[in-house]
Amino acid sequence: MTDVSDPPGPVFDLAGYLARIGHGAPVLADLATLRAIHRAHAASIPYENLDIQMGLPISIELDQIFAKLVGRRRGGYCFEQNLLFFAALKSVGFDVSRRMARVTMGNDPGGRSHLMLLVRVDGRTYIADVGFGGSCLSEPLALAAGEYEGGGDRWRVRPSAWSPGWEVEIWRDGAWLGLYWFSDDPVVDMDIVFGNHFTSTHPASRFVLGRIAARVTPTERHTLLDRLYRRRVNGVLVEEVEIPDEGAYRHILRDRFLIDLPDGAALKPIDGIAR
After folding, report:
1. Tens digit of pLDDT for each residue in 203-218?
2. Suppose 112 and one of 6, 100, 156, 236 were both cysteines; which one would form an S-S bond, judging by CB atoms 3.0 to 4.6 Å apart?
């Protein structure tokens, strides 16, 4: 199970990555390790688009991703998160490939703008995805039709009704919410270049239009969309707060999302937040 282009890249600092996510146990190319480092990555490295909101480019070069997410202890969005995770899994010895998914989020399908991973382990294929924002997987899902429990949420994987491939859904507020569709089409590097360019620069991209942050643990899910913070515990909404000003925004970034922006970082203003 390989990509058309399987980038060799530099030697990966697996020890540095594992220290960043707080995983101290031995790593083997087995399901237990896959689950453990998936959970640890999702809980430790937040999802965020704040470089875009500061007018900075998003690099998809592995050394630059590593420097940002591991060295500077920042977060990133799907291309950064899952390219880092891809390199880590390859370094451990997993059979892993990249796929470009078409985001639905319950609406009409958009372009293939989401990078996710498939991992073949112990004779089965699993969806591994540490980069889908507020609905990020906390642990891998088997690539087989069915419903699954994970991270306090219910998930459904099913064959697509409109095009050959698979759909991933989450149970949210009493109904199934479609997240994305993907097929077995292999990925080349330029697919990622195109996807990253659109999502980080196009004026209609949600990542350009507003601030996004998210973090998921095995029991809690934190999301921050512009000035609206939400926390779910075992899938149930338990906290919802409107952020009043920039000071409170920076505080909740540090406290709930583990994001400490550098001194002087200037984010694009958002409606309703006093500077």
Report:
1. 999 999 999 999 999 9
2. 100
| Distance separating alpha carbons of residues 144 and 122, to the nearest angstrom | 14
- pLDDT tens figures, 116-160: 999 999 999 999 999 999 899 999 999 999 999 887 899 999 999
Q: CB–CB of 103/110 below 8 Å?
A: yes
CA-based nearest residue to 127, from 109, 146, 113: 146
**Rounded alpha-carbon distances, angstroms, from residue 151 to 38, 42, 53, 126, 147:** 11, 10, 29, 16, 13
Can you tell me the distance from the alpha carbon of 122 to that of 150, in angstroms, rounded to the nearest whole number?
20
What token pair was written down for 17?
Answer: 């990555």
Q: pLDDT category, 70, cuts 50, 70, 90?
A: very high
Strand order in the sheet with 212-216: 47-48, 212-216, 220-225, 228-233, 236-242
Q: Any idea of the CA torsion for 95, 98, 103, 108, to the nearest 10 degrees?
A: -100
Residue 142: in which H helix or E strand, if any?
strand 141-142
Name the DSSP class of 179: E
Q: Comparing C-alpha atoms, which of 97, 70, 67, 81 is closest to residue 7?
A: 97
**Burial of 176 from C-beta contacts in 10 A (0-12 / 13-18 / 19+):** middle
> How far apart (Å, rounded) are the C-alpha atoms in residues 162 and 92?
36
Catalytic residue annotation: 78, 114, 129
DSSP 202-236: -TT-HHHHS-EEEEE-SSEEEEEETTEEEEEETTE
- Per residue in 188-206, pLDDT tens? 999 999 999 999 999 999 9
SS3 of residue 32 by DSSP: helix
DSSP character for 245? B
